[in-house]
Every structure is written in C-alpha cells, then in structure tokens.
UniProtKB/TrEMBL annotation:
Keywords, alphabetical: Membrane, Transmembrane, Transmembrane helix, Transport
High-level lineage: Bacteria, Bacillati, Actinomycetota, Actinomycetes, Micrococcales
First-listed, main subcellular location of the protein, grouped into a coarse class: membrane
Region: Disordered, residue numbers: 434-475
Protein name per UniProt: Cation:dicarboxylase symporter family transporter
Subcellular location: Membrane
InterPro entries in alphabetical order: Na-dicarboxylate_symporter, Na:dicarbo_symporter_sf
SUPFAM superfamilies linked to this entry: Proton glutamate symport protein
Transmembrane segments: 21-41, 61-79, 91-113, 150-173, 193-218, 224-250, 308-330, 342-365
Membrane topology of the entry: Multi-pass membrane protein
C-alpha cells in the first residue's frame, strides 16, 4: 500500500500544479533583485518602470472578460445551489454575510494602519486615466453605468458597465431555465480560455514585479520596503485574528467545539496548503475529513464545493487592504463613500474567481479601474508582494470553509456531535490510507460519493480545474 502523506503523489494534477512553484520562486527572486537594484542604482532602477507598467496593462486587458465570465457563471451556480434546498440556501446566506464581514474588516484595518503612507508615488504614476468627475453627481454616475451597446461593455474601459451587463446576462440565463444551459456551458468554455490566457500572462509576473519594485525603491528608497513589509505583517496578523477570534468565536458559540482542535485535526491539510499556497489542493481531503468528522455527506457535498467559490475570507481581507495600500502609496486616499462602493463591487466581483492564478489581481485591478482609474498604476506594487501573502489567504480561506461546514451541519442538525468530539479528541483518527489514489485515476476513493453531490453545485470558476491552471486562490 502506498504511503498517504501526500494524496496527490504521482498524480497528473499535482504535477501540473507544481509547475507554478517555479513562477513563485521567480517572483520572489525578482522582488529581491529589484529592491537591491533600487537601493544601489536608483536612477537606472527608475528607468525600468515600463516593465511594471506593461505587465499591469496586460492585466487590465483581462479585467472585463474575467469579471463577465465569473459573474455570469457565479449567478448560475447560486441558482443551482439554492435548488439543493435548505443546506444550499443556508450555506449561500452564510457565505455572503461572512465574506462581506471579511471585506469590512480589511477596510477597517487598512484605515487604521495606512501602510502605504509616506510613499507618495503620485508624481511617478505617469499618464494615468482620469478619475470620474465628481461634478456629474449621482444621476450622471448611474447613467454612465449603462453602455451604449451590450457588447460595448466588454470593449470599453468602464468595469461597472461590464458588471452591469454580466448581472443582466446572468439573471436572464436563470430565467431561461434549461434552455439557458447550453449558453452557460459555452460561457464556461470561454472562461476556461480567458483563465488560460491570464495564466500565460502571469508567467510574466517576475518581469513586471522586477520593474515595479525597482522603480519604487529607486524613487523612495528603504521606505518602500518598510511600507510593503508593514502591509504583509498587518495582513498576516489580521488573518490570524480573523481565524482565532471571529471564526473560533463563532464555532465555539454555535457548536461548543474549539477552533484549535479543529485546526489540529486538519494539520496535514495546512502543511499541504502552505507548501503550494493553494487551498484547492486540499479540497478532496477536506471533503473526506469533514465526512469522517461526523457531518452528513449531503451537507459536506454541497457546502465545501460552494464555499470554495463563495466563501473566500482571506481573499476578501486581502482585496480591501491591498486597495487601500495602493491608494495611500499613490498619495490619493479613498474617501469613505468610495471605500463603501468599492466594498460592494468586491462583494460581487470576487465571487467565482477561486482557484485561478491572477484572478484576484484582476479583481483588485477591476475594482480600482471602476472607482479610481488613476490608481491602477499602483497595482504593480501588489504584484511584487502578492506571493508573500498567498499562504495566509489560502489558509484563511480553507479554515473558513472547514468552520462553515461544521456550522451548516449543526444548523441543519446533520452532524453527529459525539463523533465530532471523539475525532477532535483523537479517539477516532482519520484513516490516511483511505486517501490513496486508485490505480488509473487521479481522484481519492473516499471522495467519490461526495463528488456526485459536489457536481450539483459546480464552481463558477470550475475553470480552477482547467487543465494546467494553478490552484492559487487569488482571487
């Protein structure tokens, strides 16, 4: 019998995901080299700014199709999840509330620490697009959301127009019922193509990060490094507090179980996620372990896959903190009203982009492009440090989904609390041999029954399983 320390040893899926480790290593090396060059040869480093600008322009090119596909397919998945009944509706309601709460926490922390303050990169931003005129008022703003044609929203620069049309298309396909299924399937294929292109672009991230970090450090010196380090530390602390205080408190209040015992039970999954910076790789193991914990198969089969697309707590915190960091670094802080409208945009746009490298970066750029186009240049800073925050995002997303499964099981009374207690107290250890891969397949045996249930609620970023796409939850 093969060792089960890593359920994906020798599988084709694992080999494809492992290729992105070279990308991550290259990005880290590029950030270090860029910072060193900026300190040693600041004038030359400033001249490398176009490298970062070019990469950001490539990301901007992908914003509209990413937003359109994820929103349309996301709305379709919500409809399918709701048809599962009480479990699906309860899970979706919880996910929307919790991810909104996580976004709000990111805004609060970002406003408290102001990590980008002091950089003042406004002078070097170049010819950035002008922000919308405030004099237009609310009427002008609302009218500007309506595109001149349906397709114009996909080719123009207004991301709010893209969001508006995507919502219309998504709800229209819902109303069409079975007749709309072929269209949804077609959009799913388009999304696969879009994410494949996005992944290709992300392989240029080391070049973009090198140019952006070199230019910033060359202009501001050590202050840039201090500001980026402040953001990373603050993000890690926020994620830890969110897991221990918010998720732990909610779990204790509703079920009486300890978050620390649950995390100990999921220790192997945390190691797997930390080594790959992806919560997606632990999806089959989470399904198997939640069933072993004592939660019914229907609850696990609906809650876990849906949560992987709609319950991205770590990504939500990251999006808002990163947006505020960019605004402060550019010397153009966001007003309270802009922050709230950005939060609403992120609530909608972040759904369904799980599991695809660069999707989170595109969502962040889309939010800034829709609210403050003059800040889009600052996304180059985030490219450089994004990799350093990915582990915290992935671990927070994973923990949030594990806690959600226990909570939904408790609320629907589909949980064996005696078994949960025995498992968490190590009296009923999980059988790692059950996660061995069957000959000729890439899927663990234990998840076969759950997979049938999971198919009821396909991830709108089902393209996270698109061949060769990395399972990085940047969303």
């Amino acid at each position: 019998m093969a060792a089960a320390a890593n359920p994906y040893d020798g599988s084709q899926k694992s080999r494809k995901r492992d290729r992105t480790h070279f990308l991550y290593i290259a990005v880290i090396a590029a950030v270090v080299l860029g910072a060193v060059l900026g300190l040693l040869a600041p004038e030359f480093a400033k001249s490398l700014k176009p490298l970062g600008t070019g990469f950001i322009n490539l990301i901007k090119m992908m914003i509209a199709p990413v937003i359109f596909c994820t929103i349309v397919l996301g709305i379709g998945s919500i409809a399918k999840a709701a048809t599962v009944g009480k479990v699906g509706g309860l899970a979706l309601g919880y996910f929307i509330i919790m991810s909104t709460f996580a976004l709000a926490i990111g805004l609060v922390v970002g406003n408290l620490i102001h990590p980008g303050e002091g950089l003042d990169l406004q002078a070097s931003a170049g010819a950035a697009p002008a922000a919308p005129e405030e004099g237009e008022g609310m009427t002008g703003f609302l009218l500007s959301i309506i595109p001149t044609t349906l397709l114009a929203s996909l080719t123009g620069e207004s991301i709010l127009q893209t969001l508006f049309v995507a919502l219309l298309v998504g709800f229209a396909l819902q109303k069409m019922g079975p007749a709309g299924a072929p269209v949804l399937k077609g959009i799913g294929y388009i999304q696969a193509l879009v994410f494949r292109i996005l992944m290709m672009i992300m392989w240029l991230a080391p070049i973009g990060a090198f140019g952006a970090i070199s230019a910033v450090v060359g202009e501001t010196g050590i202050q840039a490094i201090v500001s980026m380090a402040t953001l990373m530390v603050a993000f890690y602390i926020t994620c830890i507090l969110f897991i221990v205080v918010i998720l732990g408190g909610l779990l204790k209040l509703v079920t009486g179980f300890s978050i620390f015992k649950l995390m100990r039970y999921l220790g192997r999954e945390y190691l797997l996620i930390f080594s790959t910076s992806s919560s997606e790789v632990a999806l089959p193991r989470l399904i198997a372990k939640m069933e072993h914990l004592g939660i019914s198969k229907p609850v696990v089969g609906v809650t876990v896959p849906t949560g992987y697309s709609f319950n991205l707590d770590g990504t939500a915190i990251y999006l808002t903190m990163a947006a505020l960091f960019v605004a402060s670094a550019m010397g153009k802080p966001l007003e309270l009203g802009e922050q709230i409208s950005l939060l609403v945009f992120m609530i909608i746009a972040s759904k369904g982009a799980a599991g695809v490298t660069g999707a989170g970066l595109a969502t962040l750029a889309g939010g800034l492009q829709s609210h403050r186009p003059d800040l889009i240049e600052g996304v180059g800073l985030i490219v450089g440090i994004d990799r350093f925050m990915s582990e915290a995002r992935a671990l927070t997303n994973f923990t949030g989904n594990a806690v959600a499964t226990v909570l939904i099981g408790t609320w629907t009374k589909e949980i064996d609390k005696e078994q949960v207690k025995a498992v968490l107290d190590r009296e009923l250890p999980f059988d790692e041999a059950s996660m061995n891969v069957d000959a000729g397949t890439d899927e663990p045996r234990q998840t076969a029954e759950s997979a049938e249930l999971a198919a009821t609620v396909p991830s709108p970023a089902g393209s996270s399983a698109v061949a060769g796409t990395a399972g990085d939850p940047r969303h």
